[in-house]
Amino acid sequence: MILGELEKQVLNQLWTTGEADAKQIHAALGEAQGRSLNTIQSTLDRLYKKQLLSRSKLGHAFIYRPRLDRSELIARLIRDITSDFVRQGSDSLMAAFVSLSADLGDEELDRLEALIRQHRSQSQEPS
User: Fold this and answer.
1) Which residues have a Cβ under 8 Å from the Cβ of 85 and sit 6 or more positions away?
2) How far is CA 51 from each of CA 45, 69, 82, rounded to the nearest angstrom?
3) 20 to 30 A from 100, CA-CA: which of 19, 32, 63, 69?
4) Residues 4-61: tens digit of each pLDDT
């Protein structure tokens, strides 16, 4: 799955507000950048069809909500991107993470290590 720049902006807006209709998102994102309400509505519909948003009818408008939180979407995007490249094994994926970790500071590396420890302890707990 590939997300356009406006789709990312809309998702970020919805993660901030929790829910909104097209007019509210247009007021927050579209007007200042010269985007029409129709463009925002089309973007919301694309995100809905990609199953990234849920929507409910309120009067004549749809109210949109994110179906995934930010970290869930990032994990899904990483999975989508890497799945084609790691079919022969996970070594290349691990090498990519090691390469990316070179850009992280000590605090970020400490947080990453803590998340790994947390994941290991949770996966070892009996169901």
Assistant:
1) 92, 93
2) 10, 13, 20
3) 69
4) 999 999 999 999 999 999 999 999 997 778 899 999 999 999 999 999 999 999 999 9
Q: Which two tokens stand for residue 27?
A: 């007021």
Distance of CA 44 to CAs 40, 69, 113, Å? Answer: 6, 16, 36
The type of residue at 79 is R
- C-beta pairs of 25-28 under 8 Å, 24+ apart in sequence: 25/64
Write the pLDDT tens digit of every residue in 62-106.
999 999 999 999 989 888 887 777 766 667 777 877 888 888 899
